[in-house]
Each structure stands twice: as C-alpha cells, then as structure tokens.
Amino acid sequence: MNFKSIISIGAASLSALPVFPQKTTQFRLSTPNIILILMDDMGYGDIGRTSANQYETPNLNRLANQGMQFTWFYCPQAVSSASRAGLLTGCYPNRIGISGALMPWAQIGINPEETTIAEMLKINGYHTGIIGKWHLGHHKEFLPLQNGFDEYYGLPYSNDMWPVDFDGVPIRLKDTTSSKMRYPILPLIEGNEKVGEVRTLADQDQLTTEYTKRAVRFIEQHRKEHFFLYLPHSMVHIPLGVSEKFRGKSKQGLYGDVMMEVDWSIGEIMDALKRNGLDKNTLLIFTSDNGPWLNFGNHAGSTGGLREGKGTSWEGGQRVPCIMRWPGVIPQGEICSKLASSLDILPTLAAITGAELPKNKIDGISILPLMLGGKTVSPRHDFYYYYEQNNLEAVQRDFWKLVLPHKSRTYREMKPGFDGWPGPTGIETINEPELYDLRRDPGEWYNVAPYYPDKVRELQALAEEARKDLGDNLTNTTGANRRNAGSVK
Prior knowledge:
Elements: H1 3-8, H2 21-28, E1 33-39, H3 58-65, E2 68-70, E3 73-74, H4 80-89, E4 108-109, H5 117-123, E5 127-131, E6 151-154, E7 186-190, E8 193-198, H6 201-204, H7 207-221, E9 227-232, H8 253-275, E10 282-288, H9 315-318, E11 322-325, E12 334-336, E13 340-341, H10 345-353, H11 368-371, E14 382-387, E15 391-397, E16 400-403, E17 406-410, E18 426-430, E19 434-437, H12 453-470, E20 486-487
Parallel strand pairs: 1-9, 1-10, 2-12, 3-13, 5-6, 5-9
Antiparallel strand pairs: 2-11, 4-20, 6-7, 7-8, 10-11, 14-15, 15-16, 16-19, 17-18
C-alpha cells in the first residue's frame, strides 16, 4: 500500500477528527510494526537538521530524509515521569496524578486503571517490549509487565538516582550528609526481577550499546509477528556515559560523543529492520521526553535558540525533536510545522491499527492526517503547559502562547564556563500574563500582550477551560476530571 493509494482511500475523512472510521479498516490490512524511541533530556537543537554542530548525526538525518520531521512538537511536561506518563497514556500527566520525577522511595506509580499504548496494541495482537528507562513507578505493580508489556529490560528510573557523585566517586566517600546518601544502588531489571546493578561510570558507559543490542535482538526474534518496541534511552541524561568506540570522537566533548553513539544506535535499528525485511512495514517514531538540563553546562544539550530548558514551561523545556518514518505511507523528506504533541501518539496508533481507544478520557488527538502529508489540516489547536503537581503556567492556541503568572527557574543569567557540574539557576517571577507570537518569536523574547488585548482575553478564557477540567494549584482550582495515580497497596 503506497502513500498515494492511502490518500485516495476515504480522503473525505481527513476532516473527521480525531477518529478516521473510513481509514481504520484500510490500515488494518497493512498493520505496521511500531518502534518508539524516546531520548532523555535531548534538546530541540541536538540533531543535525536543527542546528547541532561539532558532531554529526548522519542516521538521524537519514531518518528525517526518509520520513517527516515535526518542528512544532511538544512533550506533555518538561520532566521525566510526567512526560512519560503523558506519552504512554495520551493524557496530560496531571490528569492521571503523575507529576515531576518519581524517586526511588516513591509510593505511587502509573495507575493500572489507565490504558497504555502497550495494552492497547497487545489487545490487537501485538507483541510488546520495552528496553530502557521506565520511570513510572518501581514497585512491582507499576512495572512494565503489569502495564501491557510482554518484555522488559532496563532501569526503573533515571540514571542519576544512585549514591554516586557527578564525578563518579561514591557519595559515602565524600559527603555523608548529602541527600544522595538516600539513593539505593541503581538496579537493572529484566521482567520483574533485578538482574544486575549500575555501580560505576564505566557501567553507565555500556547502557546505550546494551539497549541497542537488545533492541536488535527483539526485532530479529519477533520479525514474523506484529510488534511494538518502546526504546526509552537513559541518555543523554546526566551522568553521561559513552562506550569506548565513541569516546573522544566528537569536537564537542563528552556530550557530542554520547550523541554520536545515540545516532549509531538509530542506525543499528534502521539497519536491523532492513536486514529482516521489515523497514517498509514499520512505523519508527523518534522524540525526547523534554528539553536539555541546562544547568549541567557542556554536559547538557541545546535548545536551538528556544528559551530556557528542562524544568520550565518555556519553549526550550517542552518543544522537542520528533521524526516519524513509515516508507510508502509518510512522505519522504517532509517538514511538518503544525502543532502536535507526544500526547497524540496513542490515539494516532489507534487510528492506524484499528485499536479501541481507552475508555477513560484522554487528551491526545490523532495526527494521522499530518503524517499522511495533509497540508490544510490542523488536528490540534490548543495545548496546556502544566508543571509541578498541577500548576497551569501557560496555554497555547495555534501559534499564540499566553504565559500565566508563576515562578520559573531561569538559565539566562547563568555564568558560562563550568564543566559539566551543576551550575546556578535563578528564579524568574512572571507577575502579569505575557503573550508571545511563536511564529515570529520562538525564542520568547518579545511580550506582545499590550498590542493584542483581544488575543489575551481569548487565551485567558482557554486557561479557564483548562482549570475547570484539570484544575490549577496556582489559582486554587480543583478541576472536575482528574484521576489518581496508582499507590502501593
């Protein structure tokens, strides 16, 4: 089935969003394998086509040349657990009770009542696997095998959640008063059981290669059945780890080396698909959980000129790279500059595979018409920027973004020159609503609220809609449609 034939089948249904009843039956005749690669803390500007320099990303460039690059793509929230919860459930993370980054002592996790992408696809006959970082609860009831995955290998949370300082020295040898003393040894889990430990920086160096080897093996073992592979890399989150084959290879230091290995990993996946005759019937999605953690200096990535980074609701925190490839379906070499989000992946996969959408309310919208190359359609118009437990910090409609009063960390006044260790961050207070035209000002430098009072009022009304639905701690609004996270019994 080629792109032209798909466009011609039920073309009138492009206006029926988000469900494509005329298309679903056709796509099920050629149900694709699905690989979803999620980077950790990779910035919008970290790949070659969006301003990366001093290292090369030939495989990511190849992926984009063979598929579609989304330039207006947002993570659900600019921090790890929350973003992953939104990706896998199609829900704003605060809707399902997940916020921030869950710690190794957290007593909550993803609620088993929520439907993940893996559960949705498994019902439709997919073999499902995850290789890499989970971070949606480390207790057994929250782990992947209890949430739709048939296989799991990786870390239960972030690779910096261990009792080791940033220089690789165990914290007990340096500062027994440090909060890092509370962290356990970082476990490697296979299935539901601990099978190893990450104790040293040398162990971190092997993560990308090990994940990649296992991903290739997964593809080879399940090449004769429909599969969904979720590959959430631990990199490029600090502490950075890179194998000897890439150490010292870039001109940008350790971060560039790690990016080169990540790019190699993408190439290995693409080559494995081709070698096994699967590349033409596999949808490959590449994105990041949030923007770069800028206070780690040259151990952090680039926003490509967007404002601030991880841990903020500015564009550098939530606009992330995204590339999708599905030969013969997604047109090659296309750029899509329409608003889209990781929230939209679940309903899009439902539209493609004919899977039933979750019974609980979700926030994602199928972006299938964008993937098909539609130029006149815009499935998503609105986006909410929530942070912390339930703080509504901004709302967006099309290209207009209204930043609401809140306190935000800022990296703009951070002193340059530190070498990969935590740098100082300031606190910026937004006292009055600020309006930004992201078409002309993606760096969010120019507040145009005084010139567009009608647009400010329109977006303030949108913020009130969000508060009625999801609440807002900043205005002491509860919200009518929030659900609880899972909790340890």
